[in-house]
Design goal:
Elements: E1 17-31, E2 34-39, E3 42-46, E4 52-55, E5 62-69, H1 71-80, H2 85-89, E6 96-98, H3 101-114, H4 121-148, H5 151-160, H6 163-168, H7 170-177
Antiparallel strand pairs: 1-2, 1-3, 1-4, 1-5, 3-6
Helix pairs in contact: 1-4, 5-7
């Protein structure tokens, strides 16, 4: 549980999975050579070998909860969900889902509960159940995005997540879209 960008690691990678949740604030997530805006309610799955760090944006800071877990736990949860691990591993960028309203409070509470469980079987069982729930959210978000968002809109969204485009605002979005 980190309460500022200053408490996070500089650009790094690791050999395990991690998910992080933005409790409050906004920041820039440097991920695999690109900069993405992250903000309160965002939950991101970091895969082994993703290269990432965080940096301040304007006067904002972030409070973040991150949890690392071994590749075996990820594989077991994905197998339980009968999903294809390659669809998550082979993507250029990690999956992110945004929570709002009650869902946001619920996921925050569940993530905080991990550290309150006894070390050992109780914590492991709780975490495995939560991991399956979180991965299900990622998989549903990915499926919904593929159905609902047309490709040309999706490309605009990707471009607008870049810091230089995001800060330029609506004018830049209109330039990128090339449509009225």
């Amino acid at each position: 549980h980190q309460r500022s960008v200053t408490e996070t690691y500089p650009l790094h990678t690791h050999d395990f999975f991690e998910f992080f949740y933005i409790v409050s604030g906004r920041a820039i997530h440097n991920i695999n050579g690109e900069k993405r805006l992250i903000q309160d309610g965002d939950l991101t799955l970091i895969r082994p070998d993703d290269i990432h760090s965080y940096e301040f944006i304007n006067n904002w800071d972030i409070e973040i909860i991150s949890t690392g877990f071994p590749r075996e736990e990820f594989s077991a949860a994905i197998a339980y969900l009968d999903a294809d691990e390659r669809n998550i591993i082979s993507r250029k960028f990690p999956l992110t889902v945004s929570f709002s309203g009650y869902s946001r409070n619920d996921i925050h509470r569940k993530l905080m509960e991990i550290s309150h469980k006894e070390h050992g079987a109780e914590r492991k069982t709780y975490f495995r159940r939560l991991l399956i729930e979180i991965l299900y959210e990622f998989l549903m978000e990915e499926q919904e995005e593929g159905i609902i968002i047309p490709e040309h809109i999706s490309e605009i969204v990707v471009e607008m997540r870049k810091k230089e485009n995001y800060t330029a605002g609506l004018k830049r979005m209109l330039e990128i879209s090339c449509i009225s």
